[in-house]
Structures
1.
Amino acid sequence: MNDTVECPYCGHENDMSDGLTDLSSDNKFDHECSCCEREFEVEVEFDPIYSASEIVYVSCEKCGVETRDPAKKGSIFPWPQFIDQNTLCRSCFLRAHQEEYDKC
Ligand SMILES: [Zn+2]
Ligand SMILES: [Zn+2]
């Protein structure tokens, strides 16, 4: 993030790192240029906006491997009937699924 803003009067690069602490609700504040000492208005744009979510690892109930993308009973249909675990890694799930398929 660029923490400096150019003074509209004299072009001096003012350090804004302190200004953000008492930011008003409309994201604007007045700042006095540290060079020419004239006040100007600074508008802060919080951009870009990132959103984040937790990465949750669960253990496969069959082989114990940790996976971010498990096959879960209740979210996958049809869940093969002979699988008595509720959470499997993808490879265990596919293997089990294949076994069931082979029985038919
Ligand atoms: Zn200035
Ligand atoms: Zn597994």
2.
Amino acid sequence: MTYQQVLENARTCIGPYCKACNDCNGKVCRNTMPGPGAKGEGTGFIRNAEKWREICVNMDTICENSQVDTSFTLFDWTFEIPAFAAPVGAMRLHYGDKYDDLTYNNILVRACANAGILAFTGDGTDPKVVEGAAEALKANGGCGVPTIKPWDMDTIREKFALVQESEPFAIAMDIDAAGLPFLQGLTPPAGSKSVEELKQIVSWAQRPFILKGIMTARGAEKALEAGASGIVVSNHGGRVLDHCPATAEVLPDIVDAVGGKMTILVDGAIRSGMDMFKALALGADAVLIGRPFVTTVYGGGEEGVQLYVQKLKAELADTMRMCGAHSLADIDRSMLYGF
Ligand SMILES: Cc1cc2nc3c(=O)[nH]c(=O)nc-3n(C[C@H](O)[C@H](O)[C@H](O)COP(=O)(O)O)c2cc1C
């Protein structure tokens, strides 16, 4: 199977909204929610994609000709590449009938573990979403990061207790999720959390805690103050608030504020090893990739995921080689044009 065949297969079974585009950039799905698009006019997803593509890299091949190493270590685990599958929840709502969350996560979590990375798993209004994620993580030695929505404190505590049984690599929370159209006005309610509440939540995690949905240096400092081990610079792929800047635009300020003090991950239309290189050069430690992993699972199952991870690795290694970086530690802003 080729990656192109994976995309073609996905087009036959990925539901009415996603078109499994060759370039997954938010233009065709624009404001389809339910579906893979973005909120409001749908500008957030498109801007995320455009800003990575606008950045150029500095080619410099006058350097030692030695092997390129793409491996990445986080919280004592070592991965093939600095990229993880982002959490995507409520599969039936967004991608039709082929998979529910349990079946989707079973394939994704195992496939990512076998490919040498790991998967974040999603959460939804149906309690079965997190139950399914916890089962998939348990079956795969905890190789993943359950990502819980910012429900009321009692529900968060219950969901943490549930996912802890799978002894996950880390636990995350998408703190921006209350902006999702289908999460508004629900019981239990989801919403913002104060630094004091987050300190309590961090203490319940009992393992590295990652806060996803940070878009300002001040937000990153608050996450640090609350005791988070890491953040994901993310605007939820444009799904929680329209007219946000792109993640590539806010990343440098956030790195300047908290870089070296906590792990910084970033997502939002990162599609290739080249995009990954740019994110690392701006100062991220690693990236999350969301929608393309859905397409690969629908179009190619485990093999699709394996193919996509190999493709990302080859693209990253090629870019590193051509820009004079032999390990991830060598990558810095001087390798980007105009920075
Ligand atoms: C259909 C769909 C469902 C999502 N569900 C979740 C979720 O349950 N939890 C979460 O933290 N993020 C969720 N996200 C956001 C992704 O994790 C990610 O932040 C976003 O899609 C940006 O990355 P991408 O452009 O690579 O997809 C979802 C995104 C999509 C498209």
